[in-house]
Amino acid sequence: MKKKIALVTGGFTGESVISLKSAAVVIRNIDLDKYDIFKVLIFPGNWYYENERGDQFPIDLNDFSATAYGNKITFDGVFNILHGSPGEDGKLAGYFDMVGIPYTTCDPLTSAITMNKGYTKAIVNDIPDLHVAKSLQLFKNSQENYTRILDELNFPLFIKPNNGGSSIGMSKVKTEGELQEALDKAFKEDKQVLVEEFVSGREFSIGVYSAGGKTTVLPATEIVSSKEFFDFEAKYTSGITEEITPGRMNEEEIRRVGQIVALVYNQLNCKGAIRIDYFLEHDTGKFFFIEINTVPGQTETSLISQQVKAIGMEVKDFYTDLIEEMFV
């Protein structure tokens, strides 16, 4: 008998748009000979299962079930493709743990920690050959913190919401005159803001996942953007960014990066597929950790999809690996 899998999408943030696009791709590529897929949309105060005709049926939060045409539907597991809150920050994971349903992504603690860029960097900072940019984690948009930035950090700076994703609310600041506007923009998205010194280097993003008792590091994608940095527009607008998979790294860099990201994955106790963004610094080649994404996009052109195809693997088989791993 085929397993019933709830494909969870939507969300409480601006990333819900990307989540819905990812869900559409997963539905088209998942192995329907093995699984029955039910699209479940989660929005503030409105959780529902939507069938192929667009009919909607409320989710019973007591056991995460739905009743359609008089028949109760329960799920064997959850394929989580909900970016941002509550799918990526641990809230949904905690709920699924309480109702006893397995899911494809990280547990509540790992999800909560990795959603916070500052906390994540503190945890991975002792990994050999991993470097992090000098930064400040701010909890208030105050004159005191403004002064601290000027006293302790050097321009140019990246200013970003500490718990956000898809580069929403992020700015690159070259002079003091741009600083307050960037802080206001970031604090509009989050109560915590990360301010870090700019690292001049080649930018990459690399997927890592666990299945079959082993951790697999996928080929990295090199990000070459025509914009100042890889922001929301650059990520999701065709033609702005060149994505080279596999990225241009020599054998030593491939080996070193693979070791580092596997250690990051294991040190943070990750599950399922994650994506790690990093720089290789110009001149030195040092690995600078940027951030980790524990619910990476699954659109047709997403970096994870490119990297899976680069190793000669069908995306359908990749999804099967992720689903089966949650039942181990």
From TrEMBL:
**Residues covered by the ATP-grasp domain:** 117-324
Q: Which cofactor does it need?
A: Mg(2+); Mn(2+)
List GO molecular-function terms, semicolon-separated: ATP binding; D-alanine-D-alanine ligase activity; metal ion binding
List the pathway annotation. Answer: Cell wall biogenesis; peptidoglycan biosynthesis
Residues noted as binding Mg(2+) 1 in the record, renumbered to the chain: D277, E291
Gene3D superfamilies linked: 3.40.50.20, ATP-grasp fold, A domain, ATP-grasp fold, B domain
Q: Which reaction does it catalyse?
A: 2 D-alanine + ATP = D-alanyl-D-alanine + ADP + phosphate + H(+)
Alphabetically ordered keywords of this record: ATP-binding, Cell shape, Cell wall biogenesis/degradation, Cytoplasm, Ligase, Magnesium, Manganese, Metal-binding, Nucleotide-binding, Peptidoglycan synthesis
Binding-site positions, Mg(2+) 2? E291, N293
> In the UniProt entry, which residues are flagged as the active site?
E15, S166, S302
Could you tell me where this protein is found in the cell? Cytoplasm
* Coiled-coil region list: none
Which Gene Ontology terms describe the biological processes this protein takes part in?
Answer: cell wall organization; peptidoglycan biosynthetic process; regulation of cell shape
| Cofactor binding remark | Binds 2 magnesium or manganese ions per subunit.
User: One short Pfam family name for this protein?
Assistant: Dala_Dala_lig_N
Coarsely, its chief localization is cytoplasm
Please provide one cellular component term from the Gene Ontology annotations of this protein: cytoplasm
Q: What class of enzyme is it?
A: ligase
What EC identifiers does the entry list? 6.3.2.4
Similarity comment: family membership: Belongs to the D-alanine--D-alanine ligase family.
Explain the purpose of this protein: Cell wall formation.
HAMAP family assigned to the protein according to its UniProt record, in alphabetical order: Dala_Dala_lig
Protein name (record): D-alanine--D-alanine ligase
